[in-house]
Design a protein that fits this description.
The protein has about 425 residues and is of the alpha/beta class. It has two domains: about 110 residues, Urease, subunit C, domain 1 (Roll); about 300 residues, Metal-dependent hydrolases (TIM Barrel, Alpha-Beta Barrel). It is about 35% helix and about 25% strand. It is built from 13 helices and 17 strands. It has a seven-stranded mixed beta sheet with strand order 3-2-1-4-15-16-17. Strand 16 and strand 17 form a beta hairpin. Helix 2 runs parallel beside helix 3, helix 4 runs parallel beside helix 5 and helix 11 packs across helix 12. The two termini are about 25 Å apart. The structure holds guanine and fe (iii) ion. The site of fe (iii) ion has 6 residues, from strand 5.
Length: about 425
Amino acid sequence: MNNNAFALKGSVIYSQDCNTLVSAATSYLICEDGKVAGVFETIPSRFEGIPITDYGNKLIIPGLIDLHVHAPQYTYRALGMDLELLPWLNTYAFPEEAKYAEEAYARKAYGRFTRALSASATTRAAIFATLHVPATNILMDLVEQTGVQAYIGKVNMDRNSPDNLIETTVQSVEATEKWLKGCVGRYENCKPMLTPRFIPSCSNELMAGLGELQRKYKLPLQSHLSENASEIAWVQQLHPDTHCYGDAYEKYGVFGGECPTIMAHCVHPNEAELELMDKNGVFIAHCPQSNMNICSGVAPVRTYLERNMRVGLGSDVAGGADLSIFKAMADAIRASKLRWALKDKTLAPLTVPEAFYLATKGGGAFWGKVGSFEEGYEFDAVVLDDSNLEGSEEFSVQQRLERIIYLSDDRNVIHKFIKGKQIR
Ligand code: GUN
Ligand code: FE
């Protein structure tokens, strides 16, 4: 008997590709050494005798991936949706983030964020902190305890920012390097990630310094791209020599390629930007709720899928009010329908299998073989109880998933496994 194996029995469903959901009303999802060994109708002989947890007809899905979220903005989620991006940052985001200079505030506020993250169906996330190193370490310590696999970034910003939320270029680079060194050997579940806020808040010298750190330490990087019309025009003024916003990152070698990169939003790419993102394998974090709340628009996700580009979903709290990636799936589908109806009939709306793919395998690819139950994938699984939705016996497994996407909340999430370890 294999001592490092176990099975979960239930109604299993996962994405094979963006058009194909695989499901079975009753099957065994087997974990071996933290990886998926397969989904079987009966236990194969080599796994005979392994422990089995029987979840009856509860749903078992791969853990969800949040490719873009601002932990410090969780405190004021659902407030301040009356402005577009740039005034929204100045009026709501920056004043709140300035409070994280105080460690006691950070501990209280990040405690709320991590409790919500833990209760959600999210198993992996790419997270912005603030520019404050002590507060960022507090966030990493708290997320580490949840078992969620996270990339977390101390934010860099040395220009166009308020006096109480800004660093000098030298401070920003030095503090980042010191923070990176402090992370070594400290975490199992959290990893540091370079996080220049966006081009308008980072001087050329700062971007050059972060590019050097990226090459020295081989770090991934996250930032924002082509979210809002005024922002894009501002970047063009700041970098008149570029063909697109993405070029302003590319200039410093931090736009994909050797540097695994997540760019949030990508609502308004021009052809040059599409080609550059595609060529460099940049991961796009599609954040539909945020894009609606702060009036940014709707990203051409169908184009990204048709071109086989790397794309997943983000909550973008607090541009998005909700941490739930189920809500992000429903919002992605709804937003794509409005885009189709009002803007571009050539890009068909997203389907449920496509939205589920984005939330699992699409975003999970940033971590490697993550987000599916195909053999060899990391064993990240979420068990869902949909009995409160009533009538589940009348529906197929795929229909039950569809109802969960539109109707569920955290109370439906009963267990979470990450890399084969039960964390909830
Ligand atoms: N661009 C720069 N900073 C931010 C932020 O905090 N949220 C969003 N949505 N976009 C940004
Ligand atoms: Fe954001």
